[in-house]
Amino acid sequence: MSEHTSGRPTPYGHAAATDEPREPGEPQENRRQVLYWRLLARLFDHEEQAALESASLAVVEDIGLPTGLLDPQASVDSIVQRHPELAAEFDKLMVPEPEEDGSRDRAAEVRRAALTSKVLLNVFTSGSGTVTAEQLARWQSDAGWLERALGCRPGELRGGRAGAGNAPAAGGGAGQLAGGGAGHGADGTGAGGVSPTGTGTGGGTTPDLSRLIPVIGPQLGAIEGDLVKRMHLREVLADPGLARQLTPSMSLIEQLLRDKDNLSGVALANAKALIRRFVDEVAEVLRTQVEKASAGALDRSVPPKRVFRNLDLDRTIWKNLTNWSPEEERLYVDRLYYRHTARKTTPQRLIVVVDQSGSMVDSMVNCTILASIFAGLPKVDVHLIAYDTQALDLTPWVHDPFETLLRTQLGGGTDGTAAMALAQPKVAEPRNSAVVWISDFYESWSEPLFESMTALHRSGAKFIPVGSVNSSGRGSVNPWFRERFKSLGTPVISGHIRKLVHELKTFLT
Fold first, then answer.
1. What digits encode the pLDDT tens for the residues 187-207?
2. Which of 90, 325, 413, 495 could form a disulfide with 475 if both were Cys (CB 3.0 to 4.6 A apart)?
3. Angle subtended by helix axes 171-180 and 209-229, to nearest 10
4. Interval 279-311: pLDDT, tens
């Protein structure tokens, strides 16, 4: 590494003081290497490496990018505000581009390396010490730019506003991204078979984003959760100006729900406002997913509603074509036709049991909101039970997820038998009942609980065990329960919330 960073000429791609011939594209490759070496150094060691910093500065200046990209204190937002033309370059920045005729645009790779390094460093180097509301908001904004760079929808990596799973420290995700940024493969090689150190492998590789993204999401959730924990949240909430700077997130909502009993006055009002904002945002996303899921067949025995939005204009014109007046060039309509919109549904009872212990906070939030959406559907009787070592019937507030969440007590151990004691009497008609049990199934009384679940399944009720409910689909499930559910014919479904929505819609229709 020393031969690359000891002097100015080599990193910038100018001819070194030697007669040794250079391969085409090698100067650009050296520039790219400098930027990625700086990225790796910054990710794993907060101490500034003077040689790498000066070399990277020269590269950035030489390719016409703003030097603010190298400023650790500058957010991506601030860079884009001063240089609006860069906004388009950050979009899908890390999505591999197909090579044409095996050629590589090495100059473009250097430019992408500089922009990629900025996004990754801002997101994955979160520092230490106390965090202010402004710093949290800036990090969340930079995480949004990372989502754009990976071609994701806003909020998709951090749960689509639908939560992010618990995860280990963020170093692993950063390392994978550093290798997979601007055209790098999962094995650390660059597109076209060139590794970050310039060693050719002879075969082209590109990062598999479908495998990277499920890893990155929980990493971001872990970083965000750490930032929130490092805030003096009570002091921030007591200041309306600072509270307005907070962006609702799953980590923030978890902290607010845990600390709500210690808040009062202005701080409590601001906390409730943030929770309601988050609930509304998640509800909008989940409601769209419910609407997109399969629906029941049209019920033609129910007359269509004679309202304008149901007017079948094409059919109305077709049926009245015989009333066309050529002389007047006018169509006289004798009858209006309307579309059938009513669906065939059977009254169903949906019982949602959710573990509210510390490891299942995002599931508690998502399920509370999801239950309220299904409760708004016709002919669906929704019941909601939350439990840790004790169980709480939240059915009276199921239509209002905000009020439901305020009544939860997050944390503690787990005793599913307490929840089963509340759930079993609600299964009055097994054939028309579904019990969705959401937990990691690390229970205090495993055998008795599983026996009760088996009895529910054999009674004819649909029993749906779910490992967790978040947007990453990740979650640890007790292997003892997993194997027994599989033997019972009711395997634990993936924790991705879209799969649960589909499963529930299938049952209800």
1. 333 333 333 333 333 334 455
2. 495
3. 140
4. 888 788 777 766 665 455 555 666 777 888 788
